[in-house]
Amino acid sequence: GSADLSRLVADQRVITNIAFSDMDMNVNIANTYAGRVRLDGVKIKGAYPVRKGVDIAYGDLLTLGGHVILSEGSIIKSESAEPPPLPYAYRYLIRVDIGRNVTFVQGESQSFFGGTYNPVRVVVEVTGDNLIVSGTSFEPAIRGVVTFPRGNVHMYGREFTLVTPQRQEQLFGGDPEKIQFNSAQFVGRREDSGVLPILSLTAELKTRDTPKTSEIARPILIVANLRGIPGSVDALRALQIRFNAYVEDTTKSPPEFYAAGKSSDEIRYLLLPEYLRESLGQGGVDTSSIARDVVADALSSRIQSLILRRIERELERSLGLESFTLEYNIGQN
């Protein structure tokens, strides 16, 4: 590579043209990515200023380009992590492929649903080809689609499991409008915040319900459909969640599912821990009342975020661990 210093004094900039050898390496970038990286044809070319305030045309900006392949690692997004301030802008022109055994981890976020109090944590396997990263370091943009073959979404204090399209066919009776791939679509437009994807997820949770006409609890399947842009403050584009509940008819072969006749508020009530449902009482109580809905939306989440997360953080500090997670069974049945 080269570094042209002839314009250092006159224009307060250095012109570079550096090409990297193709290589495989392991990287660990805090709160970004940890794992294996393959670099193909990666170059750094353009001008960068030696001090602040030097104006460089967009086409002349220092540009990082090439092909990057990720594998055997974790993409990490932490809401609490603040990126370091950048002294100047540079351009991206990178093609990214996400290969095998890569996990996406969204740390506990309270803005996932546009600021509502519902801490969410996502741990999913991710794959994708031909993601184009462009724009500048100040205004990056991503274009392409990634899919999530399997994984879990933690919300409302409960752990939902991603549902495959094949499983969705069983649940929705082959209705093509309800079947969706678990994916994130990056549109790469500045007006869409550049790096925020349109998320589409379907996840399920098994719990138990006691119908008003019976004293015997029955298994019930809660299916959550999530679609929208995580963290968006635009109500029309923010991530929305829709609940449906199903009962499995095991007398059929193969088993069939039919709607359980539950409203969205009643389903939120079922997400409460079992002991709280019992203390609030089920018989003859309107589970769609405002008070019940507020409890279902907030209380079980606070049990996890305000109590269990504090315990985890204290154990991390006292044991000197980078991460520690408690397994708990509050409200699992």
Structural description of this entry:
This protein is of the alpha+beta class and 333 residues long. Helices cover 17% and strands 42% of the residues. The protein has a ten-stranded mixed barrel. A hairpin with a 2-residue loop joins strand 11 and strand 12. Helix 3 packs parallel to helix 5. The longest helix is centred in the C-terminal third of the chain and has 30 residues. It is elongated. It starts with a strand and ends in a 14-residue tail after the last helix. The C terminus is likely disordered.
Please render the helix and strand layout as text.
Elements: E1 2-4, H1 8-11, E2 13-19, E3 23-29, E4 33-49, E5 63-77, E6 91-98, E7 102-109, E8 120-125, E9 128-135, E10 140-147, E11 151-155, E12 158-162, H2 165-172, E13 183-187, E14 198-209, E15 218-228, E16 240-249, E17 256-259, H3 264-270, H4 274-280, H5 290-319
Parallel strand pairs: 5-6, 5-7
Antiparallel strand pairs: 1-2, 2-4, 3-4, 4-5, 6-9, 7-8, 8-11, 9-10, 10-13, 11-12, 12-14, 13-14, 14-15, 15-16, 16-17
Morphology call: elongated
Number of strands: 17
Series of secondary-structure elements, N-terminal to C-terminal: EHEEEEEEEEEEEHEEEEEHHH
N-to-C CA distance: 62 Å
Helicity, in percent? 10-25%
Number of helices: 5
Could you list the spans in which at least 5 consecutive residues all have pLDDT below 50?
A: 290-303, 329-333
- β-strand percent reads 35-45%
Major beta sheet summary = 10 strands, mixed, barrel
Q: For this entry, what is the oligomeric state of its chains?
A: single chain
Radius of gyration: 24 Å
Secondary structure category = alpha+beta
Q: Indicate the mean pLDDT.
A: 77
Q: Numbering strands along the chain, what is their spatial order in the largest sheet?
A: 5-6-9-10-13-14-12-11-8-7
